[in-house]
TrEMBL record:
Regions of compositional bias (Polar residues) in chain numbering: 185-194, 513-525
Domain FHF complex subunit HOOK-interacting protein C-terminal per the UniProt entry, residue ranges: 607-699
One Pfam family named in its UniProt record: KELAA
Region Disordered, residue ranges: 185-209, 513-537
Record InterPro entries: FHIP (IPR019384), FHIP_C (IPR045669), FHIP_KELAA_motif (IPR045668)
Name used for this protein in its record: FHF complex subunit HOOK-interacting protein C-terminal domain-containing protein
Family to which the UniProt record says this protein belongs: Belongs to the FHIP family.
Native organism taxonomy: Eukaryota, Metazoa, Chordata, Craniata, Vertebrata
Species for this entry: Muntiacus muntjak
Length: 740
């Protein structure tokens, strides 16, 4: 047997066989699969891999030297671009992909590799639904994977616009105007791009005449459907962006994965180029906007709430297989899964790229598309757009996108609110007003959105809604303690709390009467020497009893029904408080209230728009529907769980000395109880009716004939439960503070 040829001879033989085909053949219409080219290319790959396996790692063998020195990749690129014979582009893409994937030594730093790779990248995504799409995406993804391994290599792929024009139009075709406009462009984008040498094998007519190149330089944003490349800057991103529009879902998802790898590269120059010189921001936001606008206006808010969690890569929804289909489900899933992709992309992205992407979503989608929908006057429209806002508030996980969403909803203000400037941020004002909307559905949906917003790990949310108004503790009045207050409190019960109907404050009140400031104030119990106010903490059993005794015995119904005790609230409060503490750890809140001596107690106190609306609704608890009451009390209990001393004092301490004209959560409830005591007198069989309503609500009694005063009776039950919940929260928070 003849000895097998040395690898290099074998390699050269296969390459020469390919080049001879082009010299000898006259029929260039026959498809490449009818020739021996694919098998010669395959053999060349086999030889390169074998050669690398036989050598020390990092040592370049003669076959690889030959490939690099003879610019084989450049030649293959030219053949692939011409697609001669037909199908050659596909073969070239496969060869490049396997070469980069199978060879372990770093090839991309070689100019004779990264330059043809870059040119081949430009051929990808030019035509949608082309037969080579699959090979194109495989090739682009292997390049992305290589960059992920060695991020510094990305600098070879940030083309300098001027150089790429030179290589395409030939140096003589560029006038001084282009040079000037080019200088200003590179100054804008601040690129530190690798220069690309003019290449000898590209015909000079590729770019067309000078006027088109000048036009192209001035183009900035890309409409979604076009595939022109105005910015010859980061072609890897541009090609992937075009492929995200592929009608084949698998290809689009692979392209999204490639972009995910590129945005996460830590190189600052690449991040800058990504956001300033490609259409990535536009693609994300334009598609979000298009998918949002494609939602049918009649989507049921309940469906928006309940549609299962969406994962962006798995957006393969089949209407036929779905038992729980509803009109618009396909469109809703498409929108939510693309929102999820934007969220994950920003989460993974390098910091400056993430900020730029999130700002683009804020300006182009939140403000451009969502805000007009949320500000409209049609009730149906408000309900649907608020349900969608609620859904994306729940769904967002990226801190940077969350920050932009919070600024969109609440604005950036951090100084205390005043009644005069209540509508400074129009959307915030409108959404808070919607918590007290004539439509109960809109009120409940907006309150739920705020409830979920408050659970997000972002310090600005609570500060903007509540804390900025409590900063100076100017809801308190600083009184030195006097000894004769001692007898006011016995066993922690407020004197007369149980017999409120005998309290002079509550005689003869009809719901329309309003109290003067002075009378209203006296409804909050005075401080006693047992618990001076300076430390902001009152003995816990006194606070707990104050809340538990607020609703008088004749209006209580829970002790007649099993399992409605106070201990279930304790368990819930303990778990929720632990979760809130975990969220707030990073915010470095103080452990005790700001010292009164350092507070500006003279400043006029305004609880802020958000608490004002919640307190107003709380004051109407006996006259509004059960579902609304549940939602209002739910938001208030969420607020009172936050481990900030001022929130604790203002919402959970009945003994705080309220300054003139101020109200607290406790004083609002005291008002409601006073109103209730007057109204109970007018209802026959109040207690049996109350018990029946409670049993019906719990499902222990079948629905029967309508009971009169049903709204009032349901309101009393919510009020009793809410007081138990507040008592439990106060107890849990006190114990957490006193145990080290």
């Amino acid at each position: 047997l003849a000895p097998s040829l040395p690898l290099q001879e074998d390699f050269v033989y296969h390459w020469k066989a390919i080049t001879h085909y082009y010299i000898e053949t006259s029929d260039d219409k026959a498809p490449v699969t009818d020739t021996n080219i694919p098998s010669h290319l395959e053999q060349m790959l086999v030889i390169l891999v074998q050669e690398e396996n036989e050598r020390e790692f990092g040592e370049t063998g003669p076959c690889m030297e030959y490939l690099l020195h003879h610019k084989i990749l450049e030649t293959l690129y030219t053949l692939g671009k011409a697609d001669c014979p037909p199908g050659m582009k596909q073969q070239v893409l496969v060869f490049y992909t396997k070469l980069l994937g199978k060879i372990r030594q770093p090839l991309l730093p070689h100019i004779n590799v990264h330059r043809p790779v870059q040119k081949l990248i430009r051929l990808c995504g030019e035509v949608l639904a082309t037969p080579t799409e699959n090979e194109e995406i495989q090739f682009l993804c292997i390049v992305c994977a290589k960059l992920k391994q060695d991020p510094y290599l990305v600098n070879f792929f940030l083309e300098n616009k001027f150089k790429s024009l030179a290589s395409q139009g030939g140096p003589n075709a560029i006038s001084e105007d282009v040079l000037k406009s080019q200088d200003s462009l590179s100054a804008d984008t601040g690129q530190s791009c690798q220069p690309e040498e003019p290449s000898e094998d590209e015909p000079s007519h590729q770019m067309g005449d000078l006027s088109t190149s000048l036009e192209n330089l001035s183009v900035t944003a890309l409409p979604e459907a076009t595939v022109v490349r105005p910015n010859q800057d980061y072609n890897l991103v541009n090609s992937l962006l075009n492929l995200t529009r592929s009608p084949d879902g698998r290809i689009a998802v692979k392209a999204c994965e490639g972009l995910m790898l590129l945005v996460s590269l830590p190189e600052p120059a690449a991040a800058r180029c990504l956001t300033q010189s490609t259409c990535l921001c536009e693609l994300l936001t334009d598609r979000l906007a298009a998918l949002y606008k494609a939602l049918p206006p009649s989507v049921d808010p309940l469906d928006i709430e309940t549609v299962e969690a969406i994962n962006w890569g798995l957006d393969s929804y089949s209407h036929k297989e779905d038992a729980s289909a509803f009109p618009g489900k396909r469109a809703l899933i498409s929108f939510l899964s693309w929102f999820d992709y934007c969220d994950q992309l920003i989460k993974e992205a390098q910091k400056t790229a993430a900020v730029a992407l999130a700002k683009a979503v804020h300006e182009r989608f939140f403000i451009g598309v969502m805000e007009p929908q949320l500000m409209q006057t049609s009730e149906m429209g408000i309900l649907t757009s608020t349900a969608l806002l609620h859904r994306i508030v729940r769904q967002v996980t990226s801190d940077i996108l969350l920050q932009e969403m919070v600024f969109f909803i609440l604005g950036e203000q951090r100084e205390p609110e005043t009644l005069a400037e209540i509508s400074r941020h129009p959307l915030r004002h409108r959404l808070i007003e919607h918590c007290d909307h004539i439509s109960d559905e809109i009120s409940i949906m907006t309150l739920r959105m705020f409830e979920h917003l408050l659970q997000k790990p972002n310090e600005h949310i609570l500060y903007n809604l509540v804390l900025r108004n409590l900063e100076e503790r100017n809801y308190t009045e600083y009184k030195p303690v006097c000894p004769e207050d001692k007898d006011v409190v016995e066993n922690g019960l407020i004197a007369g709390a149980v017999d409120l109907e005998e309290d002079p404050l509550f005689t003869d009140i009809s719901p329309d009467n309003t109290l003067s400031n002075q009378e209203w104030l006296s409804s909050s119990p005075p401080a006693t020497p047992d618990h001076p106010k300076n430390d902001g903490k009152t003995e816990v059993h006194k606070i707990v009893n104050s809340f538990l005794c607020l609703v008088p015995d004749e209006a209580k119904s829970s002790y007649h029904v099993e399992g409605t005790g106070y201990d279930t609230y304790l368990r819930d409060a303990h778990r929720q408080f632990r979760d809130y503490c975990a969220i707030c750890l990073r915010w470095e809140w103080p452990g005790s209230p700001k010292a009164l001596e350092r507070c500006n107690l003279e400043a006029a106190f305004f609880e802020g728009h958000f608490l004002k609306v919640l307190f107003d609704r709380m004051g109407r608890i006996l006259d509004q529907p059960y579902d609304v009451n549940l939602q209002v009390t739910s938001v208030l209990s969420r607020l009172s769980l936050f481990p900030h001393p001022h929130i604790h004092e203002y919402l959970l301490d009945p003994y705080v000395n309220l300054a003139s004209g101020c109200r607290s959560l406790f004083s609002v409830i005291v008002r409601v109880v006073g109103d209730l005591m007057v109204r109970i007198q007018r209802i026959q069989d109040f207690t049996p009716k109350l018990l029946l309503v409670r049993k019906r609500l719990l499902g222990l009694e079948p629905e029967g004939p309508v009971i009169d005063h049903i709204t009032l009776l349901e309101g009393v039950i919510v009020l009793e439960e809410f007081c138990k919940e507040l008592a439990a929260i106060a107890f849990v928070k006190y114990h957490a503070a006193s145990t080290p």
